[in-house]
Write a structure and sequence with these properties.
- It comes from Streptosporangium album.
- Residues 1-37 are annotated as: Disordered.
- The chain has two helices and 36 strands.
- The protein is an all-beta fold and 458 residues long.
- The protein folds into three domains: 35-163, Cupredoxins -  blue copper proteins (Immunoglobulin-like, Sandwich), CATH 2.60.40; 167-311, Immunoglobulin-like; 331-457, Immunoglobulin-like (Sandwich), CATH 2.60.40.
- Strands 1-20-17-22-25-15 form a six-stranded mixed sheet, with no helix packed on it. A six-stranded mixed sheet has the order 14-11-16-21-18-19, with no helix packed on it. Strands 27-26-29-34-31-32 form a six-stranded mixed sheet, with no helix packed on it.
- The termini are far apart.
- The protein is 2% helix and 45% strand.
- The longest helix has 6 residues, at 148-153.
C-alpha cells in the first residue's frame, strides 16, 4: 500500500482492536460549497463573522460562521488576480484571516496574521497575487492567536481554489466534473459546536462540506477531480477509497511533475491534495478515513466513513493519463545560503509547546532570512507525538525524512514531522519581504506556543 502525506505517513497505525467510530447512515447528495469567482482579474468579497445557529450535519447548532454558513463560500481566483476582501467581525472577541498556502505578501493589509480585527470592526484586506501563482486547492481560516483552535473548530474555515490546474491534463479531461471534499470536524456540546476545552482525541463528527456521509455520484470509468482539503483545527485524516486508487496531481496546491497513485493519503492538519478518481464498477463504495496514531504522546484517530460513492449510469472510456504532468523546480542542486535547525518540543503535561525552546512572542523575531536565497532547514521533533509543520508565504521542497531521501514530485507548505524524528526541507524565498510565521498546524499546539516569527529581508 502506498501512503503519502501532507508530509509522510510515519506514525504507527493503531492495532486492529482500536474501536472504529460508529457507522453513519448514508446521507444526502454531496453539496459543493457556493463559489465567489473573480471577474476581470478582481474578486470583491465580504465576509461577515458571527455566531449563529445553522444546519450542520443535519442538526441545528450554534456555530462560528462566515457569511452565515458552517461551510462558507469557496473563493475562486486566477493567477495574477486581486482579492479585495472586507471582513466584518460580529463576534465578542477579535479575529483575523489567513489565506493558507498562498504565495502573497505577509505585510500591511495582505496576509498579515498580526492584525487584530476587534468586535464591531471591519477590516479591508487587499491581496495582489503573482502571475505565476501555483494552481490548486488552498484554504482560509482564522489565525487569531491564541484563539485559532476554538475559532477554526467552531467553523471558521473555507476553501480557496486557484484555477489553471486542468490545463496540464489532456484536452479530453479539461472539463471533467470536480468536487470540493472539505474535511471539517466538530465536537457537539448541547445545541452548540464546542469551542472551549477542546481535546484532540475526543469523540468528534467528521463531515465532508458540513455533511455526514454524503453521496458522491460517478459513472463507471468516469474521471473526476476531487479537491481534498483538511480544513479542521486539529485532527488528521488518512483517506482511502475502497477498491480505488487516488491519482495525485497536486500537493498543497503545487502541481506534481508526474501523476502518482496512492491507496491512501495522509492529510495532516492543514494539508491538501488534488486527485483524480476513476469510477469503479456499478455499485456503492466508501470514502474512509483509516485508523491512525500520531505517537505515544499523541492521539489515536479511529476509522470512519466520510462519504458513499455511487457508481452508476452509462460507462465512460476516458483517455489514459499522461506519465508527466507539470514542470517543478528542483532545489536539490541549489546553492544554500544558510542552514538552520528548527526544534519542536513540549512539556510532559501537554500544556506548553515550543519552537527552539521558546514560546511564541509576536514582538520577537526568531529567524531572519534573505530574499532571493535558498535555505536548508532541519526540522526536528523532540516530542513523542507527530507535529504538522507549516510555513507561510513560501512553500518548500521536502528533501528527506529521518535521513532517508524523499521524492514528493513537487513542493508543499505542510509536512508531518515524525515523533522523535526530523525532516530536511529547502525553501526558496522569492518576491515578498516582511514578518510572518512558521508553526505546528495542530492549532491546539500553535495556540499553546508552538509558533515562531520569520522575517524575510532584502
Amino acid at each position: 500500500m502506498t501512503t503519502l502525506v501532507g508530509g509522510p505517513a510515519t506514525g504507527p497505525s493503531p492495532s486492529p482492536s482500536s474501536s472504529p467510530s460508529p457507522s453513519v447512515r448514508e446521507g444526502a447528495p454531496l453539496r459543493d460549497p457556493p463559489q465567489l469567482m473573480s471577474q476581470d482579474g478582481v474578486l470583491k468579497a465580504r465576509i461577515v463573522v458571527e455566531r449563529r445557529q445553522v444546519d450542520v450535519a443535519g442538526r441545528k447548532l450554534w456555530a462560528l460562521t462566515y457569511n452565515g454558513r458552517y461551510m462558507p463560500p469557496t473563493l475562486r481566483i486566477q493567477p495574477g488576480d486581486r482579492l479585495e476582501l472586507a471582513m466584518e467581525n460580529r463576534l465578542g472577541k477579535y479575529t483575523n484571516l489567513h489565506v493558507h498556502g498562498l504565495h502573497v505578501s505577509p505585510s500591511g493589509d495582505s496576509d498579515n496574521v498580526f492584525i487584530h480585527i476587534h468586535p464591531g470592526q471591519t477590516f479591508h484586506y487587499s491581496y495582489r497575487f503573482p502571475g505565476n501563482l501555483s494552481p490548486g486547492t488552498y484554504w482560509y481560516h482564522s489565525h487569531a492567536h491564541p484563539m485559532s483552535a476554538p475559532q477554526v473548530a467552531g467553523g471558521m474555515s473555507g476553501v480557496i481554489i486557484v484555477g489553471g490546474l486542468k490545463r496540464h491534463l489532456p484536452p479530453a479531461l479539461r472539463y471533467i466534473t470536480e468536487h470540493v471534499i472539505a474535511l471539517k470536524d466538530f465536537q457537539a456540546q448541547g445545541d452548540a459546536i464546542k469551542t472551549e476545552g477542546l481535546r484532540i482525541g475526543a469523540t468528534t463528527n467528521r463531515t465532508v462540506n458540513g455533511q455526514l456521509n454524503p453521496v458522491i455520484r460517478i459513472r463507471p470509468g468516469e474521471i473526476q477531480l476531487w479537491r481534498l482539503a483538511n480544513i479542521s483545527a486539529n485532527i488528521y485524516y488518512k483517506l482511502h477509497l475502497q477498491g480505488q486508487r487516488f491519482q495525485v496531481i497536486a500537493h498543497d496546491a503545487n502541481p506534481v511533475d508526474r501523476i502518482w497513485p496512492a491507496d491512501s493519503l495522509l492529510l495532516a492538519a492543514g494539508a491538501r491534495f488534488d486527485v483524480l478518481v476513476r469510477g469503479g464498477p456499478p455499485g456503492r463504495t466508501q470514502l474512509q478515513t483509516l485508523p491512525y496514531s500520531t505517537g505515544l504522546a499523541g492521539n489515536q484517530f479511529p476509522q470512519a466513513t466520510l462519504a458513499t460513492v455511487v457508481s452508476e449510469g452509462e460507462p465512460m472510456h476516458p483517455p489514459a493519463l499522461p506519465s508527466t504532468f507539470a514542470p517543478v523546480e528542483n532545489l536539490g542542486h541549489a546553492t544554500v545560503a544558510a542552514r538552520r535547525t528548527i526544534v519542536f518540543s513540549e512539556n510532559k503535561a501537554g500544556t506548553a509547546y515550543y519552537v527552539n525552546g521558546k514560546q511564541f512572542d509576536p514582538n520577537r523575531v526568531d529567524i531572519r532570512s534573505k530574499l532571493n536565497t535558498v535555505e536548508e532547514w532541519t526540522v526536528r521533533n523532540d516530542s513523542d507525538e507527530e507535529h504538522s509543520f507549516h510555513l507561510h508565504v513560501d512553500d518548500f521542497q521536502l528533501m528527506s525524512i529521518n535521513g532517508r531521501p524523499h521524492q514528493g514530485h513537487g513542493w508543499q507548505d505542510t509536512a508531518t514531522v515524525p515523533a522523535r524524528g526530523q525532516l530536511v526541507i529547502r525553501i526558496h524565498f522569492t518576491d515578498y519581504t516582511g514578518k510572518t510565521v512558521l508553526h505546528c498546524h495542530i492549532l491546539n499546539h500553535e495556540d499553546k506556543g508552538m509558533m515562531a516569527v520569520l522575517e524575510i529581508v532584502r
